Structure formats: C-alpha cells, structure tokens
Amino acid sequence: MEKKIELKITKEISRRDILFSMVRMPNSELLQVGSSDFKLYGFDLSNEKSEPIAEGLAHDSYVTGVARTEAFLVTSSYDQRLVWWSMESGKPIRTVDNAHPRFIRDVQASPDGKWIVSVGDDMIARVWESSSGKLRYELHGHPTETPHHYPSMLYACAVSPDSQHIATVDRIGTILIWRSEDGRQVAKLEASEMYTWDAKQRRHSIGGIRSVAFSPDGRHLAVGGMGQVGNIDHLDGKARVEIFAWQDGERTHSYGDNSFKGLVESLAFHPNGEWLVAAGGDNSGFLMFFDLADNKKSFRDEKAPMHIHSVAVNESGDSIYAVGHGKIARWTVSAVHE
To answer: Average of pLDDT values for 200-229?
Structure first.
C-alpha cells in the first residue's frame, strides 16, 4: 500500500535575506540560521512574533553552515572562517581564520559532540576538535578539477548517527566515505548523473551533489542534486535523489523522474527511517517525500513558498522546518490511515 501523509504550513516568516543554513535545537522549535547578510540568527517558531530572538555578526560573507554541539554552535562562511559561538551567551568565542583557503560550503558536528567536519572548494575535508578548535586531520581524495579541467567544488558533508563515519560529496558526483577514528577512506561511490557538461554552447558544467544524509540506522546514504540539464543557464534538470547501501557499494534507489525541476539542496530522514524528505528548488521551491520500500518515485510532492536551502525534521516526525530564499516555514505532518 502506498504511503500517504498530510502536510500543512503552520508558520511562515518572511525575510529580505537568503537563509543558507539551519540547525534545530533538540526538543524545541528554536532554529539557528545562517544568512546572506553575514549574520547568525536565532528564531523560536513557538513564539507568535516573527522577529529573531538573537542575532550575531562574526563573518564577512554568507554563513553557509551551522553545526551544533552540546556547548557550542559552529558556523562556516565564504570568508574562509569557522566561528565558535557560546551556547550560553550567544557570543562568538573562537575564530579559525583560513580554515580553508577557498569558500567553505558546509560544516557538520558529530552526534557525540566531540568533533566537527568542514568542507570547502579546496576539495579538502577537515576534522576539528569541537572543544578546542584544534585541527585533528585532513581528508584528501576528491579531484580538484572536473574531467573537463575546470575547478571542482566540495559541496556538502554528513556524519553517521554513531559518529563513526563521514561522507563528503562533490561537483562531479563522487561520494567518499571516511572512518572518523583515523580519517581512512573506506568507500567510494558515484552519482555521475548529477553532473552535466555542456561541450557546445557554454563549455561549462553545472549540477553536482548538493546534499547528503545518513539514514537513522546508518546503513543507507542518500544524496541529492539535479539530473542532466539541457540549458545550463537555468536549473531545468529534474530534481534527483539516489540512495546507497554504502557498506555494500550498492545503489538501492534512484529517483530521477520527479515532478520538480531544480537542485535538491537538503535531505532529512524521518527519525525512524519511515521516509526521506528532499528539499530544494529552481525559481520556486519543493518538498519531495520518498519511501525506501518503493524505489520508483516519490509518494508525495509539495510546492514550497520559497527555494529551500536547509530542511530539518523534529524528533517525532510530525514537523518539518525549512529555510531559504526570503522565508522560514514550518509544516505539520500527519499520516493518512485508510
């Protein structure tokens, strides 16, 4: 029987900026959000007011990532910095300048809170001690150039629920999995359909894997991006999601014939793995829901009021939070029983 859910937008906050990154604080509706105006904002969606409850400035460019440990928030930016923020005071307490020599695209924290991982356009992933900001080691393995000799990009990273593995993904569709204990590469996967090269009109590439997430049991790895593009000046490729049983090196699901066009910018699993939500957009935005018991198509497609850059699901799986172009939104989710 096909899975069915009901969705309803129950909160919208309009903004003038673009919200690139977000982390939700546990068992709450408090979102920490990174902005195009270089600031970190706190929003409590349980509050009737739409204004941020906190804001801080410590970057000189877009805040592209927000990660959470027990004591700190850590933000990443195109300004090549990582900034540690005190959870207690909300103030920046540590800055690592030149954490990457090029744009930093993402930062994630290990669930055990001991370390964070950052990725940037230098094509290196770096693992840092969360308590001290000390660099533990670097992960080298992604090619610095595309097959057509243009600079590549390392877009996103994820950490397994048991904190034992790190996944990193790039512009040409390469997925590398590393053991967090010592930084050894343990698997390599490919999602090459998410990379388009236009050899005729623009001599340029587009796409890449833009999002990655481990399933709650750690057995599957989902990646998101966009399928092959006809006109690379527009995001007119079909939104695409692929899922791997990564320890076996097996692609188990490939969702490419979807209702929406554009990039899958963020992925989040239901806490018990009941479904996977993919979020992103082109000129507009979308949510797509996938049941891993069905490897053919999404079971629910939903237009979003904005292009989404980051999505999160709460502990009970009945609320979805998203941030993106000019808006923050919350959906309530309920199962349909027939």
So the answer is: 88
